[in-house]
């Protein structure tokens, strides 16, 4: 492979083609999340799974993020085949959701979903690694690419919300499996990318990331802030349904948050604040959001609060990616994304399991724990802000 400086500059047509195909894949990937995240717990309840088991089952993806996920991202990086890994995991995930739908007993659902999650959860960090590498190759920005995933989340949530009022909730799993299958087909269109140059020294390798205090601060802060959404992801739809809201209203509440997220992603190239400051704003916004949610607000207030998702999730994500693209060398970006996902998995998995226990006993008071997590993440980032302030751009940043 020629040195990085000798790689021909991509034409605008090639950049547009790459961006279009990646945006479409982001769309199918998060369209699946838009159907699975709000309505998989509803399906679990419909087939007779109790709240404690729902908390355990929905924690499975988070657990796989710090067990099998780093193995998958590491394997893809060693084989220098992120695109191939994405295609393989997409097809296997679709088969896995089909298998989940055939089970109704808690333990069997748990086992089938555990297999599926082992294959499915690496897809987001692999896609982000593929996207950040493509950003370098084609001179693109992360936010405008990623927003198509959020837009597809809206479509998936709305579509599934409409179906909740039309079909029995026990059939929702087949909708989820169908979206996963469509995503697998779209993945075949992803373009191959130039292989990253070989690491110049062991000091820049994957193991060095775990000795880098700045990198550790990034992934811990991101895990705490994003992990504070655990109770919201797991129990919000169940709570809203129990309070008498219909499927379309529930979907609309989710969509409000994601629309705000889309706006943040679209405007992100104009942001002038540092990525560390963006993460701190995201964390403090989450504190306020969960404290208000714990008060069981009316639908009108809840609708306003939902728009804070653009800050609590979107701004945190933009800040995290902005820091990683400066902190992590391009040749270990997939591994760096894997470590981020692993840390998030440990935090979110623990929070999800604990949320199930707290929610079963105290209901909406579970959001006080979420607020404490978000505050902790903001404090971690504040403590590391000077260490990260003057970080040079990595080879993956394109800067």
Distance between the termini: 22 Å
CATH class: Mainly Alpha
Under CATH, the topology can be stated as Growth Hormone, Chain: A
Q: What's the shape?
A: globular
Q: Could you name the key traits of this structure?
A:
399 residues; mainly alpha; Growth Hormone, Chain: A
Short description:
The chain has helices at 12-46, 51-64, 69-78, 82-101, 106-120, 123-138, 142-164, 172-187, 206-209, 213-227, 230-242, 247-267, 275-293, 299-306, 309-327, 333-362, 366-389. By secondary structure, the chain is mostly helical.
What does this protein look like?
This protein has 399 residues and is mostly helical. It has a single domain (16-191, 208-389), classed as Growth Hormone, Chain: A (Up-down Bundle), CATH 1.20.1250.20. 76% of the residues lie in helices and 0% in strands. It has helices spanning 12-46, 51-64, 69-78, 82-101, 106-120, 123-138, 142-164, 172-187, 206-209, 213-227, 230-242, 247-267, 275-293, 299-306, 309-327, 333-362, 366-389. Helix 2 (51-64) runs parallel beside helix 5.
List the helices and strands and how they pair.
Blueprint: H1 12-46, H2 51-64, H3 69-78, H4 82-101, H5 106-120, H6 123-138, H7 142-164, H8 172-187, H9 206-209, H10 213-227, H11 230-242, H12 247-267, H13 275-293, H14 299-306, H15 309-327, H16 333-362, H17 366-389
Helix pairs in contact: 1-6, 1-7, 1-8, 1-11, 2-5, 2-16, 3-16, 4-5, 4-6, 4-8, 6-16, 7-12, 10-13, 10-15, 10-16, 10-17, 11-16, 12-14, 12-15, 13-15, 13-17
């Amino acid at each position: 492979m020629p040195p990085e400086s000798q790689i021909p500059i991509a034409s605008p047509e090639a950049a547009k083609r790459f961006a279009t195909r990646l945006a479409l894949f982001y769309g199918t990937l998060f369209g699946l999340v838009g159907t699975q995240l709000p309505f998989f717990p509803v399906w679990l309840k419909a087939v007779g799974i109790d709240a404690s088991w729902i908390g355990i089952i929905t924690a499975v993806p988070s657990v796989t993020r710090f067990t099998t996920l780093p193995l998958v991202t590491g394997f893809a990086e060693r084989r220098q085949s992120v695109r191939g890994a994405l295609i393989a995991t997409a097809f296997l995930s679709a088969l896995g959701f089909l298998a989940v739908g055939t089970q109704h007993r808690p333990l069997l659902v748990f086992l089938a979903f555990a297999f599926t999650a082992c294959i499915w959860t690496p897809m987001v960090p692999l896609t982000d690694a593929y996207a950040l590498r493509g950003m370098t190759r084609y001179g693109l920005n992360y936010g405008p690419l990623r927003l198509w995933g959020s837009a597809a989340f809206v479509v998936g949530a709305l579509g599934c919300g409409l179906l909740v009022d039309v079909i029995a909730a026990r059939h929702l799993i087949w909708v989820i499996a169908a979206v996963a299958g469509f995503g697998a087909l779209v993945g075949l269109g992803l373009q191959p990318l130039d292989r990253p140059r070989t690491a110049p020294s062991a000091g820049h390798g994957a193991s060095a990331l775990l000795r880098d205090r700045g990198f550790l601060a990034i992934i811990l802060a991101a895990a705490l802030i994003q992990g504070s959404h655990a109770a919201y992801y797991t129990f919000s739809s169940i709570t809203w349904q129990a309070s008498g809201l219909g499927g379309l209203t529930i979907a609309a509440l989710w969509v409000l948050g994601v629309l705000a997220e889309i706006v943040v992603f679209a405007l992100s190239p104009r942001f002038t604040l540092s990525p560390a400051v963006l993460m701190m704003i995201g964390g403090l916004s989450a504190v306020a959001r969960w404290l208000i949610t714990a008060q069981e607000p009316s639908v009108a207030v809840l609708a306003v609060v939902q728009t804070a998702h653009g800050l609590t999730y979107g701004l945190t994500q933009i800040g995290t990616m902005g820091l990683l693209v400066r902190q992590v060398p391009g040749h270990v970006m997939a591994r760096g994304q894997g470590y981020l996902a692993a840390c998030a998995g440990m935090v979110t998995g623990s929070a999800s399991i604990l949320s199930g226990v707290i929610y079963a006993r105290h209901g909406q008071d579970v959001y006080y724990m979420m607020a404490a997590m978000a505050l902790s993440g903001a404090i971690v980032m504040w403590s590391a802000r000077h260490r990260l302030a003057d970080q040079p751009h990595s080879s993956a940043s394109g800067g």
